[in-house]
Design a protein that fits this description.
- This protein is an alpha+beta fold.
- Helix content is about 25%, strand content about 30%.
- The chain contains two helices and six strands, in the order E-E-E-E-E-E-H-H.
- The protein has a six-stranded antiparallel beta sheet, covered by helices on one side.
- Strand 1 and strand 2 form a beta hairpin.
- It is elongated and about 60 Å long.
- About 20% of the residues are buried.
Amino acid sequence: MKHQGGSLGDSVLDSDVPQSQDVVLRRKYGTGEEIVVSALLGPKAFEEVEGVLPRKVFMKVFMRKPGLSSVLQFDCDLVSQGSDGSDFYIKNAYYLQPVGLGASDYKGPLFRSLDPKLQKAFKEYLVVRGITEELTDFLLLHLHKNQQLQYLNWLHRVETMFAKDT
């Protein structure tokens, strides 16, 4: 199975609290461009497939260029591909402007309505910016392990509570 750990690449863990169900990564380039990745474990799948992690991950990627106050946001799903590692799929792409004069509420078209070549170009753009299979492997495994640790801690607390009754 390929899910052996993955890699953060050049990103750093910005927020990873054991009691939380999400993780935030940050990467800053020499050009001043900043990328923030926020990932959260999705609901448990009803149908489990052997060798595939049981829950997908919801991931948001935020990109900001130096000197600009606007942000490009991608909403993605990360999924386990079993022995083939993991992959991500872009669900939405938004161009977010700061609130104020001249700001528009229009974030962009539905991603699935974009030309398939443009959809592919957006995904390639994210891969070049470090949203690679190694990173998605890391996020999937890290969030699943964190959830398992939370579950074990919960079981321990429940056991301790019942042990006090005896």
